[in-house]
Amino acid sequence: MDRLPSLSLPRPVPGHPHRDNGADVSQVTQRSPFCPPSAFGCPSGGGHNAEVPGSAESAAAPGPVDPATSRELMDRARAVTPGGVNSPVRAFHAVGGTPRFIERASGARLTDVDGNEYVDLIGSWGPMLLGHAHPEVVAAATAAAGRGTSYGTPTRTEVELAEEIVARTPVERVRLVSSGTEATMSAVRLARGFTGRELVVKFAGCYHGHLDALLASAGSGLATFGVPGTPGVPEAATAATIVLPYNDRAAVEKVFAERGDEIACLVTEASPGNMGVVPPAPGFNGFLAETCRRHGALFLSDEVMTGFRVSRSGQWGLDGAVEGWAPDLTTFGKVMGGGFPAAAFGGRADVMAVLSPDGPVYQAGTLSGNPVATAAGLTTLRLADASVYARLDEVASTVSAAAHDALASAGVPHLVQHDSNMFSVFFTDRDEVVDFDGASGQDISAYAAFFHAMLDRGVHLPPSAFECWFVSAAHTDADVQQVLDALPAAAQAAAAASA
Amino acid sequence: MATFTGVGSHSSLLPVSAKPSRTRSGHRRASVLVRNAISVENKSLKLDKSEEIFTAAKELLPGGVNSPVRAFRSVGGQPIVFDSVKGSRMWDVDGNEYIDYVGSWGPAIIGHADDKVNAALIETLKKGTSFGAPCLLENVLAEAVIAAVPSVEMVRFVNSGTEACMGALRLARAFTGHEKIIKFEGCYHGHADPFLVKAGSGVATLGLPDSPGVPKAATSETLTAPYNDIDAVKLLFESNKGEIAAVILEPVVGNAGFITPKPGFLNALREITKENGTLLIFDEVMTGFRLAYGGAQEYFNITPDLTTMGKVIGGGLPVGAYGGRREIMEMVAPAGPMYQAGTLSGNPLAMTAGIHTLKRLTEPGCYEYLDNITGQLVNGILDSGKRAGHKMCGGHIRGMFGVFFTSGPVYNFEDAKKSDTGKFARFHRGMLEAGVYLAPSQFEAGFTSLAHTSKDIEFTVEAAEKVLKRI
């Protein structure tokens, strides 16, 4: 195991006057409402961070190293960061056990701080289309860093990346930002500014980043925690947000019939992946685009997850391009950052013309379009050719089919859904999941058992049943085989947990 | 979908030529007059390639830029496209060299493209830039921030100052159960809707009242007061008793130009917020690790409840952070119910850049050095200005400075707006032609770095003297 870097930075001093002297961290975290389900024997109100007794991290699995260092680092992290993580889903609350601290990643493999290796099916939640540390992306980022990572001025590479995005999507003009959250908050402001209207329509279970207006019945981490909203968001912020069931044409028609002339935009994940994978019904996105158009509202397609992943032109490449329509605005992120924080929103030239500095709708960012992130993103997009998408599709279909077979053999009620190479497994007895209600009713304890069994066999799934399984073009046949080999035992573990 | 060959033909990511010579004497080529340059003498900058690339950019990016202030709208002239930076220097795509006082708007406090930081980045790049899972480096940087910044007992990393302030605002509302906030005119806290009220930075630069597309409901709870006006703040507390979640401010304003707090102002804010159960939020995105290692709160010895950070803390990569008292921060998911998330938050590469940047800043003498050179710079410029008969004022604290073209004193945004922005534009252009890159707006602070030498400062002051005589 690599020696932990000694960076000789000043460490917090116990008893420092501004510290709550000697506060017991475990006591503090016990106040958290987020205790794992009682199936894990968690005492009420108690340490969700404790090792879960009888979890799949124990005996049956062949020889992973006990995640002692991860455990230690997690304790250390909880003292300095809320929940010990910088994004909630990483804390393993839905599955219990110790989050693995990652030391390095390469291709489709993660190595944790205890030396355990995993086949990666999180893919950093989407960016890693080509796998981790792709040599050409590393080279491009290295070269760019040598010339400075951020200038605060226009640069060539941001223009080249914009060209690439414009060439592959219906977007005519684009603004680069640093996260999907920033992209969506800006796009919503732009839609409101362009139309002069306020109402925003979204779908339950879709997640578009943590802007106040859209933190209503959101998916992703919020679905994982089953939280309907969040404190700290004024009612007024979500009062102008209408939340509809996904895939429900009648609901959309009704809302637009009643209030169509007040609606600034309808925002949807182009193919939702934040409540598990719940694809649009055939023609649904086209219907949304047409409905918006008829009422003078803007159709905002959130391709932060699907963009450049489900096809070289995102979800639009699979529906709009074929059916002959385009969103008015689209957001992108993840893949286009090449593993760096970078995202974008763009669309019709006349709409984008209202954005500052050309127009009065304000949005800005110090690191927006910085030369390193854009170099990494541009290289990634240029490398994402037909063979990459073919490989993604192949890996996805092999793994998803094998997951289905294993779970079916073990008699575990489940449903695999996919949109191109994005897929997820619902631990449900439903025949189909078309909306958030359908996605919600999963057997979380079965998923948790399944997750840990896979983890112990060296496969790191997303630690939540409400996330997509992300594959990459770097998954080798050996990687795929390792996943396939792990599935039967994991399916058995799921069966045992739901018995 | 348009396709463009102009920029695409330079498709290599490497610079077109080797880095130009660093000798100052030959770097001006008085060849092609740029059509729309505001030139205050016969010399002109050759900006052909900048023009070419920027023209292509305007077809793709609104205004040709990814952040409004870069478009040079308030100073005029051809926005400059840059090719590389190092230390205190920048080189544009035409090969012109400049001494840089924008510093990428704050991050570059140890100088651009620092060798040690870059070496660390290159090593980390090979190990993966983003895991979507915890990594040790997040702990290391968190601990460093906590040790440095007095108010911070716990910290959450995000990807920008905008995200940090959004998070802090939601947290303050969740913690107090109140909704109203007080901000100050001319202060800028990122572009989340509730903050786009009498905002500084690009909003001020472009002369926008506020922004369309922001629902009244989002800003109706945002109360504003003039900076440095404690009486106005007291009135707001009286008429909104028990309803104010937080007071947020830049403890030293950088987004309306450089404005320092009057003696006692920060103290008074600390008192009134404590009395009213309101959180005091210092937006140290600009001042953090720049006015002192512990930021403005260390410099002024005032401890807020929450602090937002960015710029320097990312070492040149996109990073933001918000932190503060443990009992408040424990409300943030997944420790508590207040939601905030981010795919790239805490990614190992950004953490590496931050860690090594902070490491450099812990070396003795950094802030004394910054204080020294920045003082020389500002005093030099102001002296020249006075001798040339201009109405000017300004100041500095350590590595942050500003100069206004008005007699001053400038205590707030209204005072700042009295500046002669036309003269500023001419000053900006003159300095550009002399090889000095200042922020293209009167309403932005200036930044120095550890890489700025006294020779850089002397050169700049001499250039300023010449320019100020002409404009």
UniProtKB/TrEMBL annotation, chain A:
GO terms for biological process: porphyrin-containing compound biosynthetic process. GO terms for molecular function: glutamate-1-semialdehyde 2,1-aminomutase activity; pyridoxal phosphate binding; transaminase activity. It catalyses: (S)-4-amino-5-oxopentanoate = 5-aminolevulinate. Residues 1-10, 50-63 have a biased composition (Low complexity). Transmembrane segments: none annotated. It holds the Pfam family Aminotran_3. Its EC number is 5.4.3.8. The keyword Isomerase applies. Its cofactor is pyridoxal 5'-phosphate. Keywords: Isomerase, Porphyrin biosynthesis, Pyridoxal phosphate. Residues 1-69 are annotated as: Disordered. InterPro entries: 4pyrrol_synth_GluAld_NH2Trfase, Aminotrans_3, Aminotrans_3_PPA_site, PyrdxlP-dep_Trfase, PyrdxlP-dep_Trfase_major, PyrdxlP-dep_Trfase_small. Pathway: Porphyrin-containing compound metabolism; chlorophyll biosynthesis; Porphyrin-containing compound metabolism; protoporphyrin-IX biosynthesis; 5-aminolevulinate from L-glutamyl-tRNA(Glu): step 2/2. It is an enzyme of class 5 (isomerase). PANTHER family: GLUTAMATE-1-SEMIALDEHYDE 2,1-AMINOMUTASE, GLUTAMATE-1-SEMIALDEHYDE 2,1-AMINOMUTASE 1, CHLOROPLASTIC-RELATED. Belongs to the class-III pyridoxal-phosphate-dependent aminotransferase family. HemL subfamily. Homodimer. NCBIfam families: hemL (TIGR00713), PRK00062.1 (NF000818). This is glutamate-1-semialdehyde 2,1-aminomutase. It comes from Rhynchospora breviuscula. The lineage of its organism: Eukaryota, Viridiplantae, Streptophyta, Embryophyta, Tracheophyta.
From TrEMBL, chain B:
The keyword Isomerase applies. Gene3D superfamilies: Aspartate Aminotransferase, domain 1 (3.90.1150.10), Type I PLP-dependent aspartate aminotransferase-like (Major domain) (3.40.640.10). Belongs to the class-III pyridoxal-phosphate-dependent aminotransferase family. HemL subfamily. It comes from Rhynchospora breviuscula. Residues 1-14 have a biased composition (Polar residues). Pathway: Porphyrin-containing compound metabolism; chlorophyll biosynthesis; Porphyrin-containing compound metabolism; protoporphyrin-IX biosynthesis; 5-aminolevulinate from L-glutamyl-tRNA(Glu): step 2/2. Residues 1-28 are annotated as: Disordered. This is Glutamate-1-semialdehyde 2,1-aminomutase, chloroplastic. Coiled coil: none annotated.
